Amino acid sequence: MAQHVTAGRRYLRAFVSGFFVAVPVTVTVLDRLAYVARVEGASMQPFLNPEGGLESDVVLLNRWSVRNYQVQRGDIVSILSPRNPQQKIIKRVIGLEGDFIRTLGYKKRYVRIPDGHFWIEGDHHGHSLDSNSFGPVSVGLLHGRASHIIWPPNRWQRIKPCLPPNRGPLDSEEEDG
């Protein structure tokens, strides 16, 4: 009987010490590498949440890939909301610093994106609080890049950068004309 008690204590001690190692490692991984987030609302329809309110997509947000604030046009990113820093929002990158953008209802029809900023929009214009509401976004608010849809299972896929039709920076010909 004494052997069972000693073995039980050894297993308990191993579990507790493993727990105290696993928790900091897990927190570091989630803080530095990637984490999952549920996409709520209609702002990114039809690409995310195509079924509307019936079922929310869950995406893998890659934090490592944005550690140097490197994003490209068409990426879907998570940022801290410029209006409410307690909230994270998911939008598509439309323009990068130096680009000229034709806005969709911002106070100016055309905007040059300042250094250290980018322009984000939801895919469902009119149902999105994005750069058309608050202007260019500081890259310092960047939190992660959506790399995969991981839920629901029938929507599993890698997310590739793409711009919606007629969005993105203006060509030099359009700027002149």
List key phrases describing it.
Umud Fragment, subunit A; 177 residues; two-stranded antiparallel ribbon; alpha+beta; 28% strand; 23% helix; single chain
Structural write-up:
With 177 residues, this protein is α+β, with helices and mostly antiparallel strands. The protein has a domain of 123 residues: Umud Fragment, subunit A, CATH 2.10.109. The chain is 23% helix and 28% strand. It has 3 helices and 10 strands, in the order H-E-E-E-E-E-E-E-H-E-E-E-H. A hairpin with a 7-residue loop joins strand 5 and strand 6. The longest helix has 31 residues. Its EC number is 3.4.21.-. It is found in: Mitochondrion inner membrane.
Detail the topology: elements first, then pairings:
Blueprint: H1 2-32, E1 34-38, E2 58-62, E3 76-80, E4 88-96, E5 100-102, E6 110-112, E7 117-121, H2 131-134, E8 137-138, E9 142-151, E10 157-158, H3 172-176
Antiparallel strand pairs: 1-2, 2-9, 3-4, 3-9, 4-7, 5-6, 7-8, 9-10
